[in-house]
Amino acid sequence: MYKAIGFDYGGVLAGEPAKGFNQKIQDLLGLSEDEYKTIYFKHYKKSNRGEISWEELWKTILDELGQSEKWQDFQKISDAQVKKLKTINQDLVNLIDTLKAKGYKIGILSNNSKEAAEHMRLKLSDHVDVIRVSAETGFVKPESAGFKDFAKALGVDLSQLIFVDDSENSLKTAKDCGFTDILYRSYDQLVQDLQKLEIL
């Protein structure tokens, strides 16, 4: 029996799924999807733990690729993405309120900065029970320790948790951890998936 539903922030509760941003960066740098994932996931944990900034992460990646001259072009894409991530998806907030009214615990688990965590709390604290952010906890999805910490904060077992994320990478430990995952692509698709699980 499910008792809690967790949500990623960027690409789910705010902004658009990361696939669009990723594709723009792949096109800019002339990378295949696999090449992009390889170099991004090589470095991303340091940024998500708050050890380096978002800018430092991407300067490192561009330097490693020998494409430092594309920094300004990257910044334009990045600035547009950051702006989108400050826009909360109201349909999702309404859905969360509906789920809370049904008695489910609701939480946010995000690979993000401390600044983003403050923004989440400012905008969403009234709608969720728990907010866990990697730069504060040190746990980066898909690390199982992060999901265990999240479930504990919600007061549920992992088997009682559904987690919604737009990143396949963030969900790849779902089976081992024991929670039910939903890969987010759109609001309508999410509603259908929750209906299949008899949550709605």
TrEMBL record:
Signal peptide location in the record? none
Sample GO molecular function, one term: hydrolase activity
Give the superkingdom in one word: Bacteria
Recorded hits in InterPro entries, A to Z, give: HAD-like_sf, HAD-SF_hydro_IA, HAD_sf, PGP-like_dom2
Q: Which CDD domains match?
A: HAD_sEH-N_like
UniProt-listed Pfam families: Hydrolase
Q: Does the keyword Signal apply?
A: no
Q: Does the keyword Oxidoreductase apply?
A: no
Keyword tags = Hydrolase
Q: What is this protein called?
A: HAD superfamily hydrolase
